[in-house]
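Teaching note: in complex prediction, the entire set of molecules is handled at once rather than each chain in isolation. The prompt given to students was simply: 'Predict the structure of this complex.' The entities are:
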Amino acid sequence: MAELLVWPALLAYGEAAVAYAGNARRPGSLGLLATWGVRLGWLAQTALLVVQAERADGFPWSTWAGSLNLFVWLVVGAYLIWGCSPRFRLLGLAVMPVAAGLLGLSYAAGGTTSSTHTAWHDVLLVVHVAFVLVAFAGFTVAGGLAGLELWQERLLKRRRAGILRLRLPSLVALDRLTVGTIAVSLAALTIGLVPGFVRITDRGLDALMAGTLMAWLLYAAILYLRVGAGRRATAARLALVGLAAVLVLQLGLLATHVA
Amino acid sequence: MTLLLVGTSHRLAPVEIRERVAVDPDGATALGSRLAADGEAVCLSTCNRTEIYLAADDQGEADRRATEALSELAGVEAAELEPYLYRLRDEAAAVHLFRVAAGLDSLVPGEGEILGQVRTAYEGGAPGPLLDRLFSHALHAGKKVRTDTAIAESPGTTSSAAAALAAQVFGDLDGSRIVIVGAGKIGTLAARRLLKRGARLTFVANRTATRGEQLAENLGGTPIPLERIGEALATADILVSSTSAPDLVLRRDDVAAALPVRKGRPFLLIDLAVPRDLDPAINDLADCYLYDIDDLEAVVQETLAGREEEFAKAEAIAVAEGERFSDWLATRDVVPAIRSVREQAEAIRRGELAKASSRLAGLSEREREAVDSLTSRIVNKLLHEPILQLKEAAATENRRGPENRVEG
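The expected output is the structure of the full assembly:
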C-alpha cells in the first residue's frame, strides 16, 4: 500500500510542471498552484522514501531505479530552497518536468516499491552513493540556474523591451547561486568519490567512474573559470554541458555501475 | 460598529492643502489616539494623502470629529476644507485602503513605499478588532499584488526604466557603484533614481570642471576630468552618460581595456545622450549591457502597454480582498442575532425537557444523557440552515457597494 504514495507525488509534480508552464504564459495564481504542487509532491515522495527506508534491511536505493527515485527527491528538495520565491518560478519550469519524468521512469523500473531485500549494508558505500547523488542533484539545479542566467543574459544583450515584465531573479543573484550551488555540489562529489576510490581496487575503473571523474574535472574548471578567470558566461554555458553529463551519468552509466 | 474613512489625497487636493494636513508618524499616532476615544482610529499620512480610518458606533459623530481634526490640521474652517475631502464606509473604505496599500492609488502607480507607510500607520495607530483586521488585510493585499502582478516593475519614465534595469542586473542596488559622465539634467535625474535605490556615486566625469564638481558635491562623488574616465571603468557597476558632446565619449576599446580587472562583474551602461556618447559596439563585449535612449523608451512603452493588464489584475485582487473583508464584517454584524436565536432555541429545548421530566423519570442516567444529546443535535440541525441564510443575507446587504460611498 505504501507504494501508492508515488501517485500523489507524481500527480503533484505533474501538476506543478503544467502550472509552471501556464504561469510562464500568464503570470499569476498558477504560480502559487505550482509551488504548492512542488511542496505537496515533495512531502508525498518524502513519505514514500521514509516507508522504503523503514522496510529495508540495508540501503533501500541500491538499484538504478531506486537511486533515480532518491535523485529526484534531492533535486526537488534543492529546488525548494529558492523555488517558492515568485522570481524563481521560471526555474521550476525547467526542473519540474524533469522531476516528474524521472520519477515516472523510476516507478516504471520498480524504484518506488518497498522491498526488504537490499544489496548494501556497507556504510562507506552508502556514504559514497548518498554524496554522489546529492552532488548530482545540486549540479542539476545549478544547470537550471545557469540556463536561466544565460537566457537573461541574452535578453539583456538583445535589449528586449519586455524583460522587466518577466520578473526574473537578477543576473547577479543567478550568477552567485549557480556558482554557490556548484561549489557545494563539488565538495559533496569529492566526499562521495573518496569511498569509491577505496573500493576501486576491488572492481576496477568502469564507465561511470570515469565519467564521474570527468564531471569532477569539468565542475572544477567551471569554478576556476568563474572565480579565477572571471569568465561568467562561459562558466554558465559549461554548467549546461555539465547538466547534460550528469543526466547521462545518472540515467545511462549508473545502470552499468550498479549491475 | 461602522468603518468610516475621512481623508484627502492628490486626487482631490492640491499640494497647498495636502502639505497643511500632512502629519509625521508621531503626529499620526497622537491623532489616532485622540480620535480613538470612543472606538478605533488609524491615521495614514504621506506626502500624497492624509486619511483617517475610524471604527465607531456613531458614524455621524465619528465623521464630525475626523473632519474637525483635519480642519484643525489645515488651519481652516471645516466648510473650506470640505471640497477636498472624501468619505467612504465599510467595504468601499476597505477596498480603498487595499488599493492604497497595493500602490494603485499612488501618484506613481505601483510604487512600493506606500506599503511600508501603511504598516507604520497601522503600528502607530489605535486599532481595535475591526481596524486590526482591516489593516492586516490591507498589508496582505499589498503584498499579494506585488507578488502576483508585475505592477511594481512598470517604470513610467526613461530614468526610472534605467533604475529598474539596473535592479534587474544587480538585484539589490545597495553599494553598487555609479559613474556619471556629463552633468546634464536627464543623467542627473537617472543617477538620483539609482542613488535612491541604494547605489553609491563614485565619480562624476565632466568636460567643464566646475559643473562636474558641483554635481559631485551635491550627490557625494569625486569629480574627474572627462579624459580620465577610463580610470573609473574598472570599479564601476553602472555608468550613466548624458553629455552634449557631438562625438562618442567612450569607445569599445576604452571599456575592453578595463574588462580584465572586472573579473566578469556585469557592467550596465546607460546612454541618455543624443547624439550618443557611448560606442554601440560596447554591447558586444562580454558582461557589458548598453542601453541607449531608444532602448529605454522601448522598455517604458512595453511596460506601459502591459500596465493595463497588470492594473486589471491588481484591481481584481483588491476587490476580492474587499469582498473577503466584507464577508467577515457581515458575519461579525450578525453574531449577536445568531447568539440570540441560539439562546432562545436552547431555552425552548430545556423547557420542553423539563416538562417531560416526569415521563422520563424511569430513564437511567446514561439514557437521560442520550436524550439530552439527541435534542441538542436536533436543535442544531434545525438552526443550521436559518443561520447560514442569516449570514448570507447580511453579506448581501453589506455588499451594496455604491451605497458605501458617502460623499466626496
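Point out the following to students. The longest helix of chain B spans residues 293-355. Chain B is about 55% helix and 15% strand.
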